[in-house]
From TrEMBL, chains A, B:
<feature type="domain" description="Mvd1 C-terminal">
    <location>
        <begin position="197"/>
        <end position="375"/>
    </location>
</feature>
<keyword id="KW-0753">Steroid metabolism</keyword>
<keyword id="KW-0456">Lyase</keyword>
<dbReference type="GO" id="GO:0005829">
    <property type="term" value="C:cytosol"/>
</dbReference>
<keyword id="KW-0152">Cholesterol biosynthesis</keyword>
<keyword id="KW-0756">Sterol biosynthesis</keyword>
<dbReference type="GO" id="GO:0004163">
    <property type="term" value="F:diphosphomevalonate decarboxylase activity"/>
</dbReference>
<comment type="pathway">
    <text>Steroid biosynthesis; cholesterol biosynthesis.</text>
</comment>
<dbReference type="Pfam" id="PF18376">
    <property type="entry name" value="MDD_C"/>
</dbReference>
<keyword id="KW-0547">Nucleotide-binding</keyword>
<dbReference type="InterPro" id="IPR005935">
    <property type="entry name" value="Mev_decarb"/>
</dbReference>
<keyword id="KW-0067">ATP-binding</keyword>
<feature type="domain" description="Diphosphomevalonate decarboxylase-like N-terminal">
    <location>
        <begin position="20"/>
        <end position="183"/>
    </location>
</feature>
<keyword id="KW-0443">Lipid metabolism</keyword>
<keyword id="KW-1207">Sterol metabolism</keyword>
<dbReference type="InterPro" id="IPR053859">
    <property type="entry name" value="MVD-like_N"/>
</dbReference>
<dbReference type="InterPro" id="IPR020568">
    <property type="entry name" value="Ribosomal_Su5_D2-typ_SF"/>
</dbReference>
Length: 383, 383
C-alpha cells in the first residue's frame, strides 16, 4: 500500500475512501496456532485480483463531538462485530503510538460505509476484501505509516494478503505476539501480465461450514493437516515462489492444483468430514485435467477455497478457448469482467470434452487478472 | 480355512466346490511396496461378510490326459489372466513342495467354473471373493496344508483377507519375498454376534478408476499417503484391534469412519485426484453423522471402498431404525439379505433427518453380518 499521509490534516472532519481487492491463495491457509491473534499454522501465497471487477469499498468519516461508530454494509446498518471493533482499536493505538493523530482525533466517532460490487453470498472472500479495505481507510484517516497487514490479519486472517497487489506471501512468523505474521509482496502485478483468472461461480444450495469453524475442527481432528503444514507447505511455498518468479506456468499450475486438492483432502480427513467441493466443482476440476492432457501441458489450473466456486488460472492467449470450453460444457452464457474477444473451441476438444453438457450448474464466469492491493481513492478534507 | 484333505485321493477326476466371502476393510489397504508380489504399504483390518447373501462359488474339476485350463465366470468363458495363471501355478508348486499331489495330478488340465451371487459390476469386491475361492478350491483339490493367504494375496491383494472368517488382519510383513505378508484371524465371527452390516448400493454412472491403477498413482503422487501408512495406520490398527476385542462399538465406529475418510483424502491428494465418493455417498455419510449426533453416541458407522457404495455397521438392535432412516431419506424399498422385522423411524429422527428426500439414488440395501471365511462345500471323488 502506498503511504499517502496528509500530515497537515488533523483527521477530523475528513472523508477517506479506499477500495480493496479479493485475493485467492495458491498455497492455502487452513488452521491457526493462535485463534485470538489469528496466527496461521503455515505460510500461504496468494494472487491479488484486480479491483476493476471485484472490490470492497469503504468510506470513513470522523464525527467530532461523538463517540459513536456506525457501520453500514451494502446499504444495511450492521452491528459492530468484535473483530471490527478490534481492528479500529488497533489502528487508533498505532496512530497514537506513531504520533500521527491526536487523542482527540482517534476518540472521535466514525461513520463507516462499506459495499462490495459482487454478491456477498457468492463465496468470493468478501470479508477478506472488506477488512483490508477498512484498515486501509483507517490508515489514511489517521495517517498511520508502514505496514498494516498485522492489524488486518487480526480482523480476518487471509485479508492481510489483500493489503498488497500482485503476488503475496503471508508468513506465519515466529513471535508469540504474532507481530511478525505479516504479508509481503513477492512480485507486483506487472511481473506476469499474461496471467488471467476466471472465477466460475457455481450454483450451490448446501449450507457450508464457515472457514473459521471448519479450520478449527480440522486442527483438532486431522492427522494429515499436521504433516501438510509442517512438511509439505514449507517446500511448496519455495517451489511456488520460484515458479512465479520464472513465470513458469506449468509448474505454477501443478503446484496450485496439488495444493488445492491437498487442502480439500485435509477437510475430508476432518472428523466429521467437511466437503466444500460439490459435483460441479469436481466436474470443473476433471475438465481441467482432461483439457491439459489433450493440450499436452498444463494450460489451465484450478483452485477451490472453502466453497464450490472454481478459480481458474491461465495465460491470456488461452482465455477464449477455456471460455469456449465452459460454454460448451456448462452452457454458460454470462461472462462478466474483462471482455473475451473470440470464443472458440477447437474441434479436438469440443468433440471429446464437451460431450456431456451439464446445464444450470454454473451461474456465471468473471474474467479478471492480477491487480493492485488496497488503496486510497478519495481523500476529501473539505467536507 | 479348515484343512480338509482327502489323503487317499489322487486328485485326478475329482470335483471340488468352494464358496468364499466378500470382506470390507475398516482399516484400509491402499498402495503396494511391491507391485508384482502385491506387498502392501501397511497392515489392514477387515470384516468378513456372511456367504449367505454374498459369495463367490468355484467348482474345479481335473481333466486327465489334457493340459488345458478353461475358466468360466458367471456363465461366460473368460481368458485366463496372468494373475489367475499365477495363482494356479503357485498352488501347484506348493502341492509338489508339500508332496500332497503327484506331478501327474498337478499337470492335469482344469475346468474352473465360477459365479458370484451378486452383480459383479456392483462394486462389491467380487475379485476378492473370487480369488479367495479359486485358491481355496485348488487347496482342497491338491490337498495343500496350512495357510494359503500368501498365495491368494498374489492373485488379488485384499482377497487374502477373505480366506478367514470374522475379523481379519493382513500384515504387510517384513520380508522382501512377501512370504510373511499374510492374513490371520483376529477374532471369529462369533466374537461379536450383534454386529450387522448394511450395504447401500448406490446408483453411479461415473467410470471409476480401478483400484490397481488408482493406488499406484496415489503412491507416486500423494505426500499424505506416506504419512498415513507410516504414522497413522500402525497406531490405528492397534486401536481397532482393541475396539473389536472389547466389542466397543463407539470406538470401532469412530475409527472406521475416520479411516474411510482418510483413505478418500489420500485419493483426493493424488495427482490428478481420484474421487470415489459421489453426492449420494456424501449424503449417506452426513446422514450417519447427523443420526449419531441425535442419538448422542456413535450408533452407525460408514465405510467406503474404491466406489460409491456405503458399508454401514451397526448393532442388531439399531437395524430397524437405520433401515427406516434409509427408507425415509432415499425412498429405498428393496431390502435384501437378512429380514428386518419392524422398520421404524423415531419421530425425533424422522422430522429433522428425513426432511429432504432424495429418490432413485440408492438401488437397494443388503442386510448382512460377519461370517465364515472361504470353505469347501462339496468334495466329490466319484465323478
Amino acid at each position: 500500500m502506498d503511504a499517502l499521509i496528509d500530515e497537515t490534516s488533523s483527521g477530523l472532519g475528513r472523508v477517506v475512501t479506499c477500495v480493496a481487492p479479493v485475493n485467492i491463495a495458491v498455497v492455502k491457509y487452513w488452521g491457526k496456532t493462535n485463534e485470538d491473534l489469528i496466527i496461521p499454522l503455515n505460510d500461504s501465497i496468494s494472487l491479488t485480483l484486480s479491483t476493476e471487477h471485484l472490490r470492497a469499498r469503504t468510506t470513513i468519516k470522523t464525527i467530532p463531538q461523538s463517540n459513536d461508530i456506525t457501520f453500514e454494509l451494502n446499504g444495511v446498518t450492521e452491528k459492530l462485530t468484535k473483530r471490527l471493533s478490534r481492528a479500529i482499536q488497533l489502528c487508533r493505538e498505532e496512530a497514537v503510538r506513531q504520533n500521527t493523530a491526536t487523542q482527540e482525533v482517534v476518540s472521535a466517532g466514525l461513520t463507516i460505509i462499506s459495499d462490495n460490487n459482487f454478491p456477498t453470498a457468492a463465496g468470493l472472500a468478501s470479508s477478506a476484501a472488506g477488512f483490508a479495505c477498512l484498515v486501509c481507510a483507517l490508515q489514511h484517516l489517521y495517517g498511520i505509516q508502514g505496514d498494516v497487514s498485522a492489524i488486518v490479519r487480526q480482523g480476518s486472517g487471509s485479508a492481510c494478503r489483500s493489503v498488497f497487489g500482485g503476488f503475496v506471501r503471508w508468513a506465519k512468523g515466529h513471535r508469540e505476539d504474532g507481530n511478525d505474521s505479516i504479508a509481503r509482496q513477492l512480485f507486483p502485478a506487472s511481473h506476469w501480465p499474461e496471467l488471467r483468472v476466471l472465477i466460475v461461480v457455481v450454483s450451490d444450495h448446501k449450507k457450508e461450514t464457515s472457514s473459521t469453524k471448519g479450520m478449527q475442527t480440522t486442527v483438532e481432528t486431522s492427522d494429515l493437516l499436521k504433516f501438510r503444514t509442517e512438511v509439505v507447505v514449507p517446500k511448496r511455498c519455495e517451489d511456488m515462489e520460484r515458479a512465479i518468479e520464472k513465470r513458469d506456468f506449468p509448474s505454477f499450475a501443478e503446484l496450485t492444483m496439488r495444493d488445492s486438492n491437498q487442502f480439500h483432502a485435509t477437510c475430508l480427513d476432518t472428523y466429521p468430514p467437511i466437503f466444500y467441493l460439490n459435483s460441479t466443482s469436481q466436474e470443473i476440476l476433471m475438465l481441467c485435467h482432461d483439457y491439459n492432457q489433450k493440450k499436452g501441458a498444463a494450460t489451465v489450473a484450478y483452485s477451490f477455497d472453502a466453497g464450490a466456486n472454481a478459480f481458474l488460472f491461465t495465460l491470456n492467449k488461452s482465455v477464449p478457448e477455456i471460455c469456449g470450453l465452459l460454454q460448451a460444457r456448462f452452457g454458460v452464457t454470462d461472462f462478466k469482467g474483462d471482455p473475451v474477444s473470440d470464443f472458440c473451441l477447437h474441434e479436438e476438444h469440443g468433440s471429446s470434452i464437451s460431450g456431456s453438457k451439464t446445464k444450470d450448474v454454473v451461474k456465471y464466469v468473471i474474467v479478471t487478472k492480477v491487480g493492485e492491493g488496497a488503496h486510497l481513492v478519495e481523500n476529501d478534507t473539505s467536507s
